[in-house]
Write a structure and sequence with these properties.
Helices cover 42% and strands 14% of the residues. It has 285 residues and is an alpha/beta fold. Strand 1, helix 1 and strand 2 form a beta-alpha-beta unit. It binds adenosine monophosphate and manganese (II) ion (3 copies). The site of one manganese (II) ion (MN) has 5 residues, from loops.
Length: 285
């Protein structure tokens, strides 16, 4: 049987609800053979995940999901298989977390002005000493009854034109790809069908990503429909890029996204792991 890969998920080090240890245990239960932990803008959970993976007998690939602003829009670039000790990568991620710290306070101030007090403190509570994401604000707002559920809350409060929206000032595309590559890793455009881009704009993004040295598109994502998977597989072939696979799992609260429960890659896609040697993934585990 083919190995089960899940190369995109989150822990409590960013906006997931399971600790790295719990996440690895759940992945092992779900039959995942090769897992990448890809928290937003931090590698904080990796050491714990590596240790847990060693005892659970699965391969853990180092990962991160970097926030990027490209042509005025936020896109996410996943890094896989890099050296987490790389100073340039860590300096880049630290810069993004400084922006997150400021942004979290600014979101709190804006929500306070619109009649919602205590949101910064609430979100900080949910983040439990780790970085603060909009997801933590969303949990606070739902918990306090300002919004019915996690889907509605983003639309009502946290996206462009809404009271808690603050424009992102994230990394540049070639910067993010550069950090990943300099650290020995491979860069992947996360959930490419989720950006609401026209075909022309998406292909411009993919072209610039490829020129910057990117490796793959996340062809199979927990958030892609079947049609989107086939469309993204074709884009990956057109640009001679590889294809990656990831659930974007954030925890058991979102039952529609499960670790390792993913469509197989279409036959015309070249898996990003095609030249990973077992020894490489095991060395990382
Ligand atoms: P941030 O990087 O802090 O701006 O937060 C982005 C995160 O918010 C994403 O990684 C998702 O986990 C979550 N998110 C964004 N939009 C939505 C949405 N419409 N519904 C649910 N979660 C969302
Ligand atoms: Mn997230
Ligand atoms: Mn993402
Ligand atoms: Mn993600």
């Amino acid at each position: 049987m083919n190995a089960c890969y899940d190369l995109h998920c989150h822990s409590t080090a960013s906006d997931g609800t399971l600790t790295p240890v719990q996440l690895v245990a759940r992945a092992a239960e779900a039959g995942v053979d090769v897992l990448a932990l890809t928290d937003h803008d931090t590698t904080e959970g990796l050491l714990e995940a590596i240790a847990a993976a060693r005892s659970a007998g699965l391969c853990l690939v180092t990962g991160v999901e970097i926030s990027v602003t490209w042509a005025g829009q936020v896109v996410h670039i996943v890094g896989l298989g890099f050296d987490p000790g790389n100073p340039a990568l860590q300096a880049g991620l630290a810069g993004l977390r400084r922006f997150r710290d400021w942004r979290a306070e600014e979101i709190g101030r804006r929500l306070a002005k619109s009649g919602i007090p205590g949101a910064y403190e609430g979100a900080r509570g949910y983040s439990n000493g780790h970085l603060i994401s909009r997801t933590h604000f969303a949990r606070f707002l739902v918990e306090q009854g300002y919004s019915a559920d996690m889907r509605k809350v983003f639309k009502q409060f946290l996206t462009r034109g809404k009271p808690g929206h603050v424009a992102g000032e994230w990394a540049e595309l070639d910067q993010a790809v550069g950090w990943i590559k300099d650290a020995g890793g491979q860069a992947v455009i996360a959930h490419p069908a989720r950006y609401g881009m026209t075909r022309t704009r998406l292909r411009r993004l993919i072209g610039e990503f490829q020129e910057a040295g990117g490796t793959a598109l996340e062809v199979v994502s927990g958030s892609h429909s079947r049609d989107e998977v086939f469309t993204m597989a074709r884009h990956s072939r057109d640009f001679s890029l590889c294809a990656s696979v990831g659930s974007d799992y954030h925890g058991p609260e979102t039952p529609w996204a499960q670790l390792g429960r993913l469509m197989p890659l279409p036959d015309n896609a070249v898996p990003i792991w095609h030249d990973w040697s077992i020894s490489k993934t095991q060395a990382l585990a």
